[in-house]
Amino acid sequence: MALTESDGSLELSCNAEDGVSSEKQEEMSSPGSNRGGWVTFPFMAGTLMGLTIAMGGWATSLVVYMIEKFNVKSINATQIYNIIAASTSLFPVIVAIISDSFVECYSFIWASALVSTLGITLLALTAILDPLRPQSCENGSNFCPTPSKLQFGVLFSGIALASIGLAGSRFTIATMGANQFDHATDQGIFFNWFAITLYGSIVLGGTILVYIEENVSWPLGYSLCIFVNIIGLAIFLSGSRYYRPVKPQGSPFKSIARVLIATIRKWKVSISSSEDYYHEKNSQEVEKLASVPTKSFRFLNHAAVCIEGDTKPDGSVAKIWRLCSVQQVEDLKTILRIFPVISSNFLLCTAVPTLGTLTVLQALTVDRHLGPHFKFPAGSMFVVILTSTSISITLIDRFFYPMWKKMTHQTLRPLQRIALGHMFNMTGMGVAALVESKRHKVARSHGIVHQPGSSVPMLVLWLMPQLLVVGIGEAFHFPGQVTFYYQQFPKSLKSTSTAMVSLVVGIAYLLSTVVIDLVRRITVWLPDNINNGKLDNVYWLFATIEMVNFGYFLICAKCYSYQNMEK
After folding, report:
1. d(C-alpha 468, C-alpha 477), whole Å
2. What residues contact 479, with CB distance under 8 A and at least 6 apart?
């Protein structure tokens, strides 16, 4: 199973072996079958909504819950959240690498949904049962009861199960849904509606459920998360008779591993410039584009050298881990050429996890009342980024891109979109630093710097611009990355190409966690009471890192030559 995203939508390549015979699968997946098609969409959309709304309810409020109910230090809570988010992004990619032909989308979705339900139930129990959480911390006190090992064990077990279930079910729905259609046009329409449903559900869960949790009752909010998660699972199972099963497809990472292993095993074999020395795969599934390997990364050419015993009399490969085709070698070289650009995007994507978590800490210290009866939930700050991204993608697609093409007579290329994302992210960090500087001055002027839990007389609306700017940057660089990887990766590795986006996001969360941890170790900028720290310096540090990384990206982009850019 490989996580992919294409044109802003998400996809998974699943290897299926659901106990149905291959003849039966062909019959059920044929265009004339009464299974599949748009009749399955309400079930897919309903499932996605239920599972994602539940995720928005428990995940976006997790930092606030750990701080207020488990007395976790504020910075520690953000670090834990970043690790969870990183794991959720990396888990589908890891599964894609190790998955074999015994995993089937249908079974994977309902099993993962059950796991997530169990995880959310454990979280709900920590909110419902007093023995499963520590005593409340007195307002303004620096000495709060520490959770016991049992209390931490139940909490983190719930988080782990909910995260694993989320990663295993939510994205897999995209592939299973696309597999219900025979035509690319229908698949494209499905992915568009999938993306709309996904973002909309996150916003609903991250606002309505989080508001209930923070302002009405945590037990009620988490119970509603369980309810909508079960509803999503029930909708999915109710459509079972309409779903079309998926044929086995093999891992997209297998050919990469074959090239590396064959290269090592044939390291001492001499390399020639004649195509007679190399193996050319004769396959209808993979278009043969190369007969002689290129000179770049020349050491990999060993994998395609054909020596005695490598092939059978009929020309087929005798030992697949000793001989690869020239095209397989060139596919790996293409990935290596793209890697510098990929590496420059790791730090680019740290803006979202950094602002998304630290802004929550800022929100907990300011006045969040918007009118006499509404208090903005601190856990919903992350939703501002998602909303900004969703709106910006629409405006950019409808107005900015056509205007660019009209003025320059050229289409904005993927690397140019990513560059604009770099610029907006740097700006967002700068805005965050300036706003935090003002918030800190207000706190000092009112003498509440050394008073934990005291509210700074400053409206939460001051924290919105930094999130809006980063959201605009996300609207540029995220689709730009998806498009770049999809266009530039070799045709035989399309499923692998868009999996890179999830990998980049996961690594970005880990990098944000590492940088913040280093800041805590060597500076006094991030104490538990941010009113007594220098959070603005942290933002300036990230802005500087983004600027240096932007220079690295420009070098990578300048040296890169576009491939597969046929109109």
Report:
1. 15
2. 7, 8, 393, 417
Which residues is 13 bridged to in the sheet? 2
Q: How many CB atoms lie within 10 A of CB 499?
A: 27
Domains for the chain: give ranges and CATH numbers.
Answer: 1-248 (1.20.1250.20), 254-337 (no CATH), 349-559 (1.20.1250.20)
| Distance in angstroms (rounded) separating the CA atoms of residues 101 and 432 | 47
For residue 105, the number of C-alpha atoms closer than 13 Å in the C-beta half-sphere is 29
The string of DSSP letters for 32-60 reads TSSS-SGGGHHHHHHHHHHHHHHHHHHHT
Pairing of strands 456-459, 366-367: parallel
Note the pLDDT tens digit of each residue in 1-46: 333 333 333 434 444 333 344 444 444 444 445 788 899 999 999 9
Phi and psi for 458 in degrees, rounded to 5? -150, 130
User: How sure is the predictor about 275, in pLDDT bands with cuts at 50, 70 and 90?
Assistant: low
**Measured between alpha carbons, how far is residue 151 from residues 62, 133, 225, 547 in Å?**
15, 6, 21, 42
* Closest listed residue to residue 502, CA positions, set 36, 47, 225, 88: 88
Task: Please enumerate in sequence order all residues whose Cβ is within 8 A of that of 527, keeping only pairs 6 or more positions apart, or say none.
Answer: 533
Q: For residue 299, what are the CA distances in angstroms to 261, 293, 305?
A: 12, 10, 11
Burial label for 7, CB within 10 Å (0-12, 13-18, 19+), is middle
Of 496, 536, 546, 467, nearest in space to 250 by CA: 496
Query: Is the full-model pTM beyond 0.90?
Result: no
Distance CA 57, CA 62 (A): 9
Distance CA 223, CA 34 (A): 38
Is 18:103 a contact under the CB 8 Å cutoff? no
Comparing 143-147, 163-167, 188-192, 326-330, the range with the smallest average pLDDT is: 188-192
Q: State both tokens at 99.
A: 């998955």
Cα angle: 307, vertex 308, 313; to 5 degrees: 115
Tokens of 216: 């009405």
State the Cα–Cα distance between residues 495 and 343, nearest whole angstrom: 19
Name the token pair of 144.
């709060």
Tokens linked to 500? 């890179």
Neighbours of 140 (CB within 10 A): 9
Using CB atoms within 10 Å of the CB of residue 373, give its burial: 0 to 12 exposed, 13 to 18 middle, 19+ buried. Answer: exposed
- CB-based contacts of 451, cutoff 8 Å, min separation 6: 140, 531
One-letter amino acid identity for 340?
P
Nearest to 433 by CA among 318, 545, 298, 554: 545
End-to-end C-alpha distance for the chain, whole angstroms: 30
